[in-house]
What we know:
The chain has five helices and six strands, in the order H-H-H-H-H-E-E-E-E-E-E. By secondary structure, it is α+β, with helices and mostly antiparallel strands. The strands form two sheets. Strands 1-4-5 form a three-stranded antiparallel β-sheet. A three-stranded mixed β-sheet has the order 2-6-3, with no helix packed on it. Strand 4 and strand 5 (177-180) form a beta hairpin. Helix 1 (7-24) runs antiparallel to helix 2 (29-36), helix 2 (29-36) packs antiparallel against helix 3 and helix 4 packs antiparallel against helix 5. The chain is elongated and about 105 Å long. The protein starts with 6 loop residues before the first helix and ends with a strand. The relative contact order is 0.08.
Amino acid sequence: MNEQNDPSINENQAADEAEAAEGTGTFTAEEAGEAASGSGEDFGRLKELANEHQARALRVQADFDNFRRRTQKEKEELAQYATSKLVTELLPVLDNFERALATSPAGADSEAFTKGINMIFRQLDGVLRSEGLTAMETVGQPFNPEYHQAIMQVESEEHEEGIVTEEVQKGYLLKDKVLRPAMVKVSM
């Protein structure tokens, strides 16, 4: 059998010489390929294989970098909005406090009680504000479906069409995200 014509012998020789070059550190991959094969066909195939592996390694590195960035962003977003569920559940309590303060009876006996309720309300409001909760300003603003939930259209002479005329229920933002849209009446 002729060694130059048998491709398996040439591949084995190329592999042995490439390993020897790796061990000494004196040959490059191209030099090892040229030395291993008299024909450029094997060298071209090996070079193509090396390029394919390099491209695959670059894609894996890029995928890992994208994964790392995405998980970091998700972690930051989770930390930023971790309190949103609790704050959402506290919004009806805040609404009820506002209603109670708006309907507090007048009189000397109830003045101390109203003052106490007002202090508790301010404390709760302060805690929620420190978490990033802010009430939306809606009356007089153009209707925006991202921030407002229209429950009724009313005729208005003082407002032009598409302007919020009355707020039925307050809307809230948690940092920059809509936590609860405001229920509003819109002029037509």
